[in-house]
Amino acid sequence: MKVAITGATGLVGSRLVERLHKEGHQVLVLTRNPNFAQKVFPPANFPNVEIVTYTPTTSGAWQDAIAGCEAVVNLAGEPIGEGRWTAERKQEILNSRQLGTQKIVEAIAKANLKPQVLINTSAIGYYGTSETATFDEASVSGNDFLAQVCQAWEAEASKVKEAGVRLVILRFGIVLGNGGALAKMIPPFQLFAGGPIGSGRQWFSWIHIDDLVNLILQALSQSDMEGVYNATAPSPVRMNDLSQTLGQVLHRPSWLPVPAFAIEALLGDGAIVVLEGQQVLPKRTLESGFAYEYPNLLPALQQILR
Question: Which of 140, 161, 216, 239 is the most buried (most CB within 10 A)?
Fold first, then answer.
């Protein structure tokens, strides 16, 4: 296959490109920063990777590159857990997903030789937050900022169906790998100052990066997969359990809670990402026949941190 990928230099995207390249597929990397992309995917090591410069929220000549690709994987979006959510920042978070997806769908619609499938990212923030409820793919959406972003994001992606293209929406949980959220959690434990964030009762719905990449690969090849799938492990945990397991794997105590007010002072409204959570189950993902390598947290963390 020839697969176009946005967000290819990120935590998930770079692992996906590596896997696709290793399996002999051609990869078209759509990037705002071609120089950085060439450092991540040096031509000598990635001869099957083509790098195209694009502006995610603007129509342009880059859209022509989509024609002839069998699939598009849209992973792009401004990070939500970095810095305070000012009005300007919230607009960037929304635009990067809503307008970015709109331009990808626009490119697919006008291609003479259209891709067969669009795999579009969303997030479990779609469901809102709760300490008591359980959510699966059939659950209704929440009404906070992140839920509204996910609704707008998915609505733009859904328009690709008008072009007769198969759509798979993957609602990502917290991705565990070498980087991302886990990289921010480890340093306090290494300093013997690790512990749960906030109340410790909030749910943490996660997925190992290898399982996530395998799920994307299954969605690319399995033509009966269509619609929304939760990209989460089948065993979400509470923050207290996450902290204890992380301490166990790092051989460090988990005794020093991070108070909610400290996170709120740092992140403002964005603190909701770590202080509140949701228990999300991958019902349709399991029904699709997907087999998790890391369904449980302890082996997942052991594999990443060994």
Answer: 216
What type of residue is 135? F
Give the mean model confidence (pLDDT) for residues 122-134: 97
Q: CA dist 189 to 193, 244, 260, 296, Å?
A: 5, 10, 18, 21
pTM for the model: 0.96
Tokens of 171: 């609602």
Q: Check: CB of residue 137 under 8 Å from CB of residue 229.
A: yes
Q: Which two tokens stand for residue 126?
A: 């779609």
User: Please, which residues have CB within 8 angstroms of residue 297's CB and are 6 or more apart in sequence?
Assistant: 206, 233, 235, 237, 241, 242, 245
What mean pLDDT is reported for the chain? Answer: 96
Identify the residue whose tokens are 């929406």: 169
The CA angle 288-292-293, to the nearest 5 degrees, is 155
266 has a pLDDT exceeding 80: no
Count the alpha carbons within 13 Å of 120 in the hemisphere toward its beta carbon.
32
Q: Are strands 279-280 and 134-135 parallel, antiparallel or unpaired?
A: parallel
Q: How far is CA 11 from CA 20, 121, 184, 189, 272, in A?
A: 15, 14, 14, 22, 22
Question: If we measure between CA atoms, which residue out of 185, 175, 205 comes closest to residue 258?
Answer: 185
Amino acid (one-letter) located at 55:
T
Q: Which of 295, 272, 234 is nearest to 81 (CA)?
A: 272
- Within 23-139, where are the H helices? 34-40, 87-110
> Dihedral through CA 279, CA 283, CA 286, CA 289, nearest 10?
-160
List pLDDT tens digits, range 95-121: 999 999 999 999 999 999 999 999 999
Crossing angle (nearest 10°) for helices 239-250 and 180-190: 60
Report the distance separating Cα 305 and Cα 185, nearest Å. Answer: 12
Q: Is the pLDDT of residue 241 over 90?
A: yes
